[in-house]
Design a protein that fits this description.
The protein is an alpha+beta fold and about 400 residues long. The chain is built from 13 helices and twelve strands. A hairpin with a 2-residue loop joins β2 and β3. α9 packs across α11 and α11 runs antiparallel to α12.
Length: about 400
């Protein structure tokens, strides 16, 4: 028997017992759908994390007083050891005579406070002071107006760029440019509006104002550590730029070769590595638990195929008596179990994709279905069908034709 003929016989058998075939398919459909939905959620989270959290800007990384803090003990250790990041550090990075891989660097600092417009007040607004060139490093896009310029930073002008939430609250349906809001009781003229960023894990990201860092230092305390955002010359040179910055800061702090850094350098790669360390095991365990449904589906197929062999004993005897070989019977029943599993896998993928799109629109979460996982799901479904059908097919192939013809 050829493979094409075996598949046709399998499809005829499946169609002849529609209800039983459907109930058999349910196990594989639910198993594949569950695994794919879990993978879509994980891949969506990873893509969202990369785009919204790990993205520090165009080929950029950050220098902070603290690196990654994974425990209270680690925080205490870093707090005792690490020194504040200062403007002198920023100038040293930019004025390094051996500078080769650092394209640019900008300072940033943040606090939380009130922003007012007329009688309206917004609480817990992120107030960020930045260097004028942060606009060329940060991933923030300007929707209206412009970013802070060099002259405004050098002269400590009272100007600001506001987030979309500020505009929605204070200026619905009104052009916000050149209007004044009050920050720390002082009037600031709006020169730009940032593009809406949405939320991260349910936390709004558009409730902020950006002012020149020189103005920030006048209005708020100057005795605080700043952050430095560093842009490498290209994506391929980020690691070399990191080494370049690390050498400058270690030299400034007179650290010996065997002493740890007393500052933190945070890259997108390090953020993703930290995420993998914290969530990788949980993600794999979740996929493993979801895969149990596939195992159950395989058991269902094996059970139904054993029933099918018992019901079709006489048919098997007739086929053998007219010349069918053991391998023909084996191929027939294996084709049926694999076909069942593949149909169930395909339906499961389609249902998972539809439910994933629905969840993404209703709950405003990101769901991604990678092609490699789709192909893997189909392969796994086929493998489950193959493995589940081996014993029933072997049992059918080993039937004695004389005894099979006597079956009622």
């Amino acid at each position: 028997m050829r493979l094409g003929e075996a598949i046709k016989v399998a499809l005829d058998a499946i169609w002849a017992h529609k209800l039983r075939s459907f109930l058999t398919l349910l196990g594989i459909i639910i198993g594949v759908m569950t695994v794919i939905l879990v993978v879509m959620g994980i891949e969506g989270f990873n893509a969202y994390f990369n785009d919204r959290i790990a993205d520090l800007g165009a080929n950029a990384f950050a220098v902070r007083k603290f690196g990654f803090v994974t425990s209270w003990e680690d925080f205490i250790k870093q707090n005792k050891r690490n020194k504040d990041i200062t403007f002198d550090d920023l100038h040293a990075i930019l004025e390094n005579p051996r500078r080769r891989y650092v394209r640019d660097a900008a300072a940033e600092v943040m606090t939380v406070g009130q922003v007012k417009y007329g009688a309206q007040t917004l609480q817990d607004v992120r107030i960020m002071g930045v260097s004028f060139n942060m606009g060329e490093i940060d991933r923030l896009e300007i929707a209206e107006g412009r970013y802070i310029n060099r002259e405004e930073e050098e002269r400590s002008r009272a100007v600001c760029v506001v987030g979309a939430d500020i505009v929605k609250e204070f200026f619905p349906g009104v052009d916000p440019l050149d209007r004044e809001v009050r920050i720390a009781g002082l009037p600031f003229r709006i020169v730009g509006v940032a593009e809406e960023q949405g939320t991260i894990f349910g936390q709004p990201q558009d409730n902020f104002v950006i002012i020149p860092i020189s103005t920030f230092r006048k209005v708020f305390s100057t005795r605080r550590s700043i952050g430095i955002r560093v842009a490498a010359t290209s994506a391929d040179e980020i690691n070399r730029a990191v080494d370049e910055v690390r050498m400058v800061l270690r030299a400034r702090r007179h650290l010996k070769y065997d002493e740890e850094d007393n500052f933190g350098i945070i890259t997108a790669e390090a953020i993703n590595s930290f995420r993998e360390k914290m969530l990788g095991t949980i993600q794999m365990a979740t996929i493993g638990l979801a895969s149990i449904a596939l195992v159950v589906g395989g058991i269902v197929i094996m059970n139904i195929m054993l029933v099918s062999v018992t019901e079709r004993t006489r048919e098997i005897g007739i086929r053998k008596s007219v010349g069918a070989r053991q391998r023909d019977i084996l191929l027939q029943f294996l084709s049926e179990s694999v076909t069942l599993a593949l149909i169930g896998g395909a339906i499961g993928i389609l249902l998972a994709y539809g439910l994933g799109r629905l969840a993404a629109s209703v709950f405003e979460i990101r769901m991604e279905l990678p092609v490699d996982w789709t192909l893997l799901a189909v392969a796994i479904a086929g493998s489950v069908g193959l493995i589940s059908g081996v014993y029933p097919a072997y049992k059918a192939a080993r039937l004695d034709p004389v005894e099979a013809l006597r079956a009622e």
